[in-house]
Amino acid sequence: MSIEVRNLSFAYGSHEVLRDVSFAVPDAALVGVLGPNGVGKSTLFRCILGLNQGYRGTILVNGQDLRRLSVRERAREVSYIPQSHAPVYDYEVLDVVLMATGSDLKMLSNPGKAQVKRAYAALERIGIERLAHRAYTQISGGEQQLVLIARAIAQQAQTIIMDEPTSALDYGNTVRVLSCVRQLAREGLSIIQSTHNPDQAFLYSDKTLVIDGGRVRAFGSPHDTITSELISDLYAVDVEVNSLYGDKVRVCVPVREVQSR
Ligand SMILES: Nc1ncnc2c1ncn2[C@@H]1O[C@H](COP(=O)(O)OP(=O)(O)OP(=O)(O)O)[C@@H](O)[C@H]1O
């Protein structure tokens, strides 16, 4: 499911956050969004999800203007994994995932066998089926993050927006989740995810969107976009981008740390 953002601007009252943002995410593509704290990444996501009303510009979801979609239609098209999440669900993990299957149910009807199967399949895909009958409020923050990712998969939306999905995960779960997300994009989904780790973009993104001061600073392949100059300037630290494995992957190194050794 494609997403196209055209000349998007958004302000919280008089505080202008996004300015003339344009980019497109085609089907089967994973776009990584980079940018320092507070530049407007979550605000951009909230606009695409229809949670921030009153934006200027146009957001097209699979060619349809977001403003014309009902809440149910939006839920069918786009699922969301928020950055931080106060656990409001006093339910079993399975029920939290099942709630995401509601967009294909009629009003007031309960999930049936098909929805339960889908919820289990999503938990298995993320490798957390053992948590199915645990209380959501009694699992760790990282485990809750994994449940939200399973929930987004169970929703079967064609676009997933992830706000720093691996921020609470340990190294192993980070790698597993990013690989799974990569695979979902290969299967045809459009995925937009923010990260504070530019190294991840090289391995797991098709394109990198760099937001700076509410504007698009760069948009293109990670190799073209994530340069020593850009990362150093963006985060105000001296960074050198080095290549590994015959340039199949690159890593960012804070050079002062190396020089002081
Ligand atoms: N509800 C709100 N009302 C007013 N200002 C807000 C609101 N939410 C965010 N902001 C402001 O808008 C700007 C962009 O915030 P946003 O959360 O989009 O940044 P971000 O790039 O996602 O940051 P981070 O990387 O720290 O999560 C910030 O200056 C923030 O203080």
TrEMBL record:
GO terms for molecular function: ATP binding. It comes from the Bacteria. Residues 3-238 form the ABC transporter domain. Keywords: ATP-binding, Nucleotide-binding, Transport. Coiled coil: none annotated. The keyword Nucleotide-binding applies. CDD domains: ABC_Iron-Siderophores_B12_Hemin (cd03214). It holds the Pfam family ABC_tran. This is ABC transporter ATP-binding protein. It comes from Adlercreutzia faecimuris.
